[in-house]
Amino acid sequence: MNAVRSPMAEALARSMLPPATFIASAGVRSGEPDPFVDAVLAEKGLSLGERHPRTVADLEDAYFDLIITLAPEAHHAALEFTRSMAVEVEYWPMPDPTNATGTREQIMAAYRDVHDRLRQRISERFPTISPPERAE
């Protein structure tokens, strides 16, 4: 579903990579926006803006050099989607914070953990690109 991990990764990548970099996220299914994603991004000075969840079919006509998947189902779909394309597909397994239970703070901690993991992976994958300084 394109409502939690990939939109968060999209927002982070947009904040960390040059503006000319084409960045889009999509899922196997769309789904509704997740308010915890908005809350965690707002804490970091980021926003999804008016972005709405998309499916892979919504991006069918786009060209990609790299597709990064964050869940097993998305990875299998990306491999199928790109089988006749010259595109690199990477799998970055990320926990699903929607499985978190407990208080609001405990749930937010699960979303913050995913944010931090994504930020680290993006920094490692694109080391020559230094992210702008952000107050956190």
- Quick check: average pLDDT? 89
Distance between the termini: 28 Å
SS strand fraction: 5-15%
CATH topology: Rossmann fold
Radius of gyration based on Cα positions: 15 Å
Domain Phosphotyrosine protein phosphatase I: 2-128
Keywords: Arsenical resistance
Protein name: Protein-tyrosine-phosphatase
Write the layout of secondary structure elements.
Elements: H1 5-16, H2 35-43, E1 66-69, H3 72-81, E2 88-91, H4 104-125
Parallel strand pairs: 1-2
Walk me through what this model shows.
With about 140 residues, the chain is mainly α. The chain has a single domain, classed as Response regulator (Rossmann fold, 3-Layer(aba) Sandwich). It contains 4 helices and 2 strands. A two-stranded parallel ribbon has the order 1-2. Helix 3 links the parallel strand 1 and strand 2. Helix 1 packs across helix 4. The longest helix is centred in the C-terminal third of the chain and has 22 residues. It is globular.
Features:
Rossmann fold; mainly alpha; 39% helix; 4 helices; 136 residues; globular
Give me a quick take on this structure.
The protein has helices at residues 5-16, 35-43, 72-81, 104-125; strands at residues 66-69, 88-91.
